[in-house]
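Protocol step 4 of 6: structure prediction from sequence.
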Amino acid sequence: MPGTELVKAYDRPPILLGYTYDPQEAYRARDESRLLAIRIETNRSCNLRCRYCYAQSGGDLTAELDIRVLENTIRQAAELGARSIVVIGGGEPTLHRRFRRLISFIHDHGMVPMIFTNTVSITPQLAQFLQENDASIMGKCDSLQPSVQDYLAGCTGAFERIRAGLGRLIEAGFTEVRDPHRLRLGVSFVSCRRNLPEMEEIWHYCRANHIFPNMEVLTPTGRALETLPDQYLTPEEIRDHKLRLLNLDRRFFGYDWLVYTPLIASGCLQHLYSLYITLEGNVRPCAPTKFDEHPALRRDGVYPYNAFRRPLAEIYHDPLFRYVRTIDKHLEGKCHRCQHLDECIGCRGYTYAVGVNQGKGPLRALRSECQQCFRQVEA
C-alpha cells in the first residue's frame, strides 16, 4: 500500500458537503418533518454510456427539464427545509442548456449545489464557476486502468477525459479545504468483479488528497441488468471488500466507521430525509427505488406521486412517503430491531431492486432484509 502511516486525526471520516448528513441530523429532520435534500434529474443526454447506468441515459439527447420547472421544484424543496440540491442528472447534468443558471439559482437560495458529473465536460472556466458558487462535486473514477474505465464507461477514451476533468476541478481549488472533515470533491466508483482489485488503491488516493471516496456496489437495475450480468459481487465479496477498506482507514488515516452501512464509511439514510425526482417529475425515495415503475402503485394506470402535477409538500406528507421515512420501524429479517438502526437501515434501494426482481410487492421489497449486510445474528 502506498504512503506512510498517519497519526490518528478523527474518529469519524469526512463527509461530502450537501451529499451526506450525519445520522442524528437525518433522524431529527425526519422527526421534525423536514427535508434535508432532494435529488433531481435534469436531462437524459450524456457523453458516456456507462454499463451500470440506472437511468440508461444517453439515448435521448433532447429530453431535459425546462429551467422554470426545475426552479419551481427547488423552491418547493427549500420551503420544506432542504439544505442542498443534489443535481444527479439522469444523464450528464453539465450538458443541460441552463446548467449555470440552475447552479446559481440553488446557490442564491442558500442551498448547496451538489453535482454528480462524469467530469468529461469540465473546462477550467466551468470549474471556476462551480467554485465561485460553493458547489460540491461528485466525479467519477471506476478504475485506474484506461481499458477498464473505458469498458465500464462504454466509451473509448473515457479514462483520459475523466481524468482531465478531475484535474481541472483540483486546479480550481476543490481539494483545498479549510476543514478536512468537510470535503467538496468526491469521486464515485461502482465496484464489480472487473475493478474490485483496484478499490483499495483508489480509496487510499482519495483519502490522501482530500477527496471523498464514494464506493457503491453494482445494483441489479437499469442498463446493468443486460450489460453486466456476471459482474455482481457476492455477499462474501462485499464483506471482505468492506473489511479491507476499514482496515486501510484505521491504519493510515485514523478513521473508524460501522462496517455494515451500504455506502462505505458514510452510511445511507436518505430515505429518512430526501426525495428523488425523475425527469418526468415522478417522486421516488431514491434512484433504484423505482416506485413509479411498479404497477401496484399506479392509479388508473398513472403514477400519482408526480411533483409536476402535485405540490411537493403534498407528496412528502402522503402516507406512502411517511411509510418510507419510518421504514426503520417496519424492517424485516435481521434488519428488524438491529442494534445499529441509529445509523444504518441497510441499502433500501438495492434491497428494493432485488425484491422486485423476485416478484415482491413494492412495500415488502422495501422493508426486506438488507441483501448486502453480513452482520451475524445470534440464534
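Step 5 (inspection) to follow. The first helix runs from residue 23 to 31.
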